[in-house]
């Protein structure tokens, strides 16, 4: 059972695709192929496509904020920051006061810190530079001064960058060196990754501090951010730089030792933590607040912690988006192909969308940060794109099929009936049903002999033209074409839909069919072939109508004695010298028909005779009434009526049907026809 289901789904999908491709033209196939290729590009390259990459970044930020790694305070790193209070105290904003920095370095050196990173650019001369250089010269603790490559950044001019190098050299201390302080944001200004380093550039500050240049030299992957697991304790301990210049505090041995314990054996990062200076947007909101930005000092701390933990995240392998695309695109294709307004289908769509959303979030929850570069929005967009493409193709093909079906139906049904059936497909108009219908048969005299003496190509062209003309008459009269039997046409009124005037429509169609047959005979293209007249039989009665046949082919038709009677009436025209014969059931059913009685006949397969009528449109109403009275009186044995009937026939010597009718009445004969 486990193997049957996938095989069944595969076969059904293949069948649907075959149906789809069968209806698509060459240009549509090319467009569909290009669209699928575009979906694949979107799914695999969404982090590189303008507009789409913004959505990827937003989703990544949401994932990261939900599953950010929380940790206790990192006791390896301590921050010492210039704050806004420092600026107010010193009265200096840019550049920052370097005398305070010199005193702080001396204190940290005495505390026995592991290394010091100064995230402050010394790029312009200041009066207190000599004091700072002297402090650097005496440092026993490794110190990394911030530097920036030029012209890599527009933060500094070449002269400023050169002064920063010169300042480090003037310290004349092997423990003092430069470290690249540059940070690299994405095009939207958000800091998500490590800066890409070029060959020959000075090492990044965090790498220089941790002596990890070799390991991280070529790393440009995600930057790991963490959040504190405690609401009252930051991830990195931070002290304002003012404390280290407070003589009262620093001369107090107990206080001094307390500070030294906080610094001993730790990496100390000195920089600015100001409201509007050196701030960077993070890819997530700061947990517990509305902040989505942080200081450069914090960024350097996060980078240093990542180096110390030796966390280098490999980029998302190229095969990952391709593999997911290979799953997602067929999912969208199959879902679109099997579109139905059902609970099962809706549940499948919801499950697929939930999976597409859950996968990247699940990865993020399992291992922080590996989903940077994962095409979450790209896969979702590709699914919708392919799903929408299949819906559009299906709807366009269904629309095209509807047009084809409508065209096919209008070949057999009047346009209004065909349209009603197409508009209400849920109604089973074409199932088996017992109906009272009008049935019409036509036949072309001498067609068999015509086939024997004419070329098959001529016969085919002649017959197609003939049936086309007759079919149009039936359709225009609101009838349904039941079938073609050689040169014969069978039509019905009252199915699949019935109308109040079906009887009159059928009667009028009988007259027009004969007239159309005569016009066909006179057509210059066919007149030389000696084509016979068109004979018509029309009857009203009960029949079973519906679709009948096998599973591969069905035919909408009418079954029953009514059909046979109409066929016998058509054949009786030959014996009665008439062109159109209408049963008494039609005359009784339809008001306003202009018919004269032609006596009663016994049809083959029937015991009881039926009265038949011939349309008499050439007679006035008064003449028709007089003829009907003569007929009734003659049947009743009135000699005067009989004599008048014979006189009428004599006066109309060209009326062969009337002459034969009088002859039959004289012999009091009932013909079996």
Quick gist of this model?
It is built from 24 helices and 18 strands. It is 50% helix and 16% strand.
Structure description:
By secondary structure, the protein is α/β, with parallel strands linked by helices. It is about 50% helix and about 15% strand. It contains 24 helices and 18 strands. The strands form four sheets. Strands 11, 12, 13, 14, 15, 16, 17 and 18 form an eight-stranded mixed sheet that branches. Strands 5-4-3-8-2-7 form a six-stranded parallel sheet, sandwiched between helices. It has a two-stranded parallel sheet with strand order 1-6.
Question: What distinguishing features does this structure have?
Answer:
8-stranded mixed beta sheet, 18 strands, alpha/beta, disordered C terminus
| Protein structure class | alpha/beta
Distance N terminus to C terminus? 64 Å
Sheet of most strands: 8 strands, mixed
Number of strand elements: 18
Number of helices: 24
The geometry reads as rod-shaped
Mean pLDDT: 83
Provide the fold topology.
Blueprint: H1 4-23, H2 26-45, H3 52-66, E1 69-71, E2 77-82, H4 84-90, H5 98-111, E3 115-121, H6 129-137, E4 143-147, H7 158-170, E5 176-180, H8 205-210, H9 213-216, E6 226-228, E7 237-240, H10 247-251, H11 253-263, E8 267-272, E9 279-281, E10 293-295, H12 296-308, H13 319-337, H14 343-366, H15 376-410, H16 415-423, E11 433-444, H17 447-453, H18 456-476, E12 480-485, E13 488-493, H19 502-522, E14 534-549, E15 554-559, H20 561-576, E16 580-583, H21 584-589, E17 595-601, E18 610-615, H22 621-635, H23 639-651, H24 656-667
Parallel strand pairs: 1-6, 2-7, 2-8, 3-4, 3-8, 4-5, 14-16
Antiparallel strand pairs: 9-10, 11-13, 11-14, 12-13, 14-15, 16-18, 17-18
Helix pairs in contact: 2-13, 2-15, 5-6, 5-11, 13-15, 15-16, 18-19, 22-23
